[in-house]
Amino acid sequence: MWKLNLIALTLLAGAIALTGCKNEPTDPPGAATKPTTQPATTATQRAVGEKPNIIFVLIDDAGWGDVGVYGQKHFKTPHLDKMAAEGMRFTNAYCGSTVCAPSRAALLAGQHTGHLYQRGNGGPIEFRKDPKDITIATLLKDAGYTTGLFGKSGLSCNTMNPQRVLDKGFDRFVGLTSHSMCHRHYPEFVYDQTDQRTLEGNEGFTGKHYISEVATAASLKWISENKDRPFFMHLALTPPHADLMVPEKYRAPYMGKFEETPNTGGYYKQQHPKATYAGMLNFIDQKVGEVLAHLEKEGIADNTIVFFASDNGPSWEGGKAPEEFDSNGPLRGGKRDLYEGGIRTPFIVWWPGKVEAGAVSDLPTAFWDFMPTACSLAGVDAPRWTDGISITPTLLGEGEQAKHKYLYWEFYEHGGKQAVRFGNWKGVRLGVGKNRNAPIELYDLSTDVGEKNNIADGHPQVVAQIAAMMDEAHTPAEVFSFERGFLREKFPLPAERYLPKAKLIDQSNWKVIDASSESKFNGRVAAQAIDGNPHTWWHTRWNGAQPPHPHHVTIDLGAAQAIAGFRVMARQDGTDNGRINGYAFYVSDDPQTFGEPVAAGNLEDTINEQQVRFTKPVTGQYVKLVARSDFKDSPYTSLGELNLLAE
């Protein structure tokens, strides 16, 4: 009986607690590490006065060392340097993750990747409807703020659903919802609320309307329209993410200043990648300067706090040269690493008259701290389930600053990774997909910020503490696993993507015996094109040297078969990267000798299933598909499924 009474009391307490915040999720995740969140303190309210406007500017794939005040010497960022001189610069600030989608989700949802729903890149995953995945936009909207998102939405990875942005608390939206589409800086359209507004003359790689220019212009207009009431604005700009492209006026100062190696494979074929990358940071710097100047012009700078950060560390994609530019400074690694170079971010906060000019803070802070910080500034209590702490006392120099017991990250690519920062200790565990108790590397960041010396053997007790923290912070993910990454089968494909059923040749004895290349590092091997699962796919190699077109895959059917044609389905994650156009299909009894193709031509640029029927059936044990992905001028090939039609 006492057990039943205890359960009843627990449920009653939970029900009472839930009444405190109408947007609290009905199934709040159990935050294993429960740092003290700060309600809107009297000291904070005295310092703030009326509700301040809140702006968070987030850029894409810039490193800790890509800003002048963080050590960049190869190009200049005068406006960001001025922002730091007039505000506060953090030296121990961290992103939400080491890739886009989960990092942005952590910022907006106030949770680390051990608790988030959107814990990685991939597929059609997007924030769930309220009351799940409550965002800071919703909380601030409930607190009387008008809200706007301009640029790259962090509420999804790949979706064509702009309504989700409005559903999750944003009153105004001008931007894109697909991270894949955001690889192109000249997209053919932009979402304006839920409408697709055509960007005349844009063709992806070329055009007249640079998407981050469009987003910034819309954000400035919106600021002017809402200057007389409190607002929250999230400006999410896509540079310097590959493709490496920027309007010429931003690149021109750097042309001829670097020894260039043209990028010829993957993303845009950029002849001047270094000058372009420097130009993209120049663009970012000038846009931040425009935002701050606009606040001054409208007379609202003194009541507006502006945050600036990058979503993860620097990448090597598109021909970038992070090592030559010292984009990660003294830090180890970059994008997709959980070493410091992958997750530490340049973080600057500006608020004239409130945040001390020229201040530098070494407080360890992470993206999930933004939610309780913004709530504190707005004068409302932060939700109990956030993993964050308010850093308002540090920003305003008033009150006692709470500190994290530890910071935690997990990552579902490259075999699965976990990391913990615990004081000055940093623990990194690799290969989690194969071994949840894999050895933990240990570094002392106070003496080894570059994480060069693994001292785990000398500190077994610290390693044991970090292992316990990793276990404590991780909760089971709904649509990710360390072993397999994104669980695509959780998202059934629409029926209209499939052709009417036809008699297909059984695949159970098929085996790939040759492929021009495979993307083995992330598991996109050729065998996934014949595994019967459209949520997996073959992708040709894209890291390192790019193998040239055409690409091919050769399959042993196990026995001679009468083949009437073939059926293919493109990769199903919402991107056209590597989608097949030109093809030639061969059938033979000898895996070393293929004569003339039995069919050749072009496929459509579609995500739906397509099939090609031969003039007459052809018999053979071996088939070979040769393919080109001429769409979007891509050097890759990818294929979700390959089936053969029976007679």
Explain this structure to me?
By secondary structure, the chain is of the alpha+beta class. The chain has helices spanning 2-18, 42-48, 78-86, 100-109, 136-142, 163-167, 211-225, 248-251, 273-297, 322-325, 340-343, 370-378, 392-396, 460-473; strands at residues 53-59, 88-90, 93-94, 146-152, 172-176, 189-192, 195-198, 231-236, 304-310, 347-350, 359-361, 365-366, 407-411, 417-422, 425-430, 440-444, 480-481, 485-486, 511-515, 538-539, 551-569, 582-588, 599-602, 610-627, 638-639, 641-645. Strands 7-6-5-4-8-1-9-10-2-11 form a 10-stranded mixed sheet, sandwiched between helices. Strands 19, 21, 22, 23, 24 and 26 form a 6-stranded antiparallel sheet that branches. Helix 7 runs parallel beside helix 9. The longest helix is centred in the middle third of the chain and has 25 residues, at 273-297. Mean pLDDT is 90; it is low at 1-48.
